[in-house]
Specification:
membrane; 257 residues; mainly alpha; Bax_inhibitor_1-related
């Protein structure tokens, strides 16, 4: 089950870093202006697109449960959609194409999550709803905190979070060569959960600052938040499923005794 944590979130971070983030310096950190109406309207479009992506992901999960389509191919297709989407210029005549790619990426991501969700349903179906609600609550709280906080207050997290992603990549690389223990997999899961919760705050504030500087690419911005949500959801789902399986095993032992 720990293998599901290896690609969700980190692959997008590596892909997205190749296209670069908006530049900023120390003086921008002191800018505490309120969010302008134009930026507020941009955030509405971002969260509307994000909600549509959630629906597409749910469809992808359903398609896997019905036809068993999720796996390595859908994961590779998901990464392909990410690269294709990020490589398309943000001109108005490309908007519909980029939106379709966003929905396709979300659907493929949901299908790729299908095998994990199928396992969880067989162990304890209630864990799935609890993990989704928990992820949604965490996303609303962290994203809302970033919106209501002082301007650029959490941008300094970018360097720390980038270092954290590098640590996870090196751990995965070392595990592939030398073999990974259960304790390492647990560390990757919990550390990754904290890391991508931080990315929710960081990406939300970066979206605000980019929009304030004239970058209204709501498709790319909603994709960033979607991958953050998916990365948190996968890790939280794995943690809760492990706990549920452990409790079930303890109950079986008690009954035998």
């Amino acid at each position: 089950m720990a293998s599901y944590t290896s690609n969700y979130g980190r692959g997008y971070r590596s892909t997205n870093q190749s296209f670069g983030y908006a530049s900023w310096d120390y003086h921008t950190l002191k800018n505490l202006r309120k969010i302008s109406p134009a930026v507020q309207n941009h955030l509405k479009r971002v969260y509307l697109s994000l909600s549509s992506a959630f629906v597409a992901a749910a469809v992808g999960v359903y398609l896997h449960l019905v036809w068993n389509i999720g796996g390595l191919l859908t994961g590779l297709a998901f990464m392909g959609c990410l690269i294709w989407l990020l490589s398309i210029p943000t001109y108005s005549y490309n908007e519909n194409k980029r939106i379709m790619l966003l929905m396709a990426a979300a659907l493929l991501n949901g299908a790729s999550l299908g095998p994990l969700i199928d396992i969880v349903i067989n162990i304890d179906p209630s864990v799935l709803a609890t993990a989704f609600l928990g992820t949604g609550l965490a996303f609303v709280c962290f994203s809302g905190a970033a919106i209501l906080a002082r301007r650029r207050e959490f941008i300094f997290l970018g360097g720390l979070l980038g270092s954290g992603v590098s640590i996870l990549l090196w751990l995965q690389f070392a595990s592939a060569i030398f073999g990974g223990s259960n304790s390492i997999h647990m560390f990757e899961t919990y550390f990754g959960l904290l890391l991508f919760l931080g990315y929710i705050i960081f990406d939300t504030q970066m979206i605000i600052e980019r929009a304030d500087n004239g970058d209204y690419d709501y498709v790319k911005h909603s994709l960033e938040l979607f991958t953050d949500f998916a990365a948190v959801f996968v890790r939280l789902l794995i943690i809760m499923t492990r706990n549920a399986a452990s409790r079930s095993e303890k109950e079986k032992r008690k009954r035998r005794d």
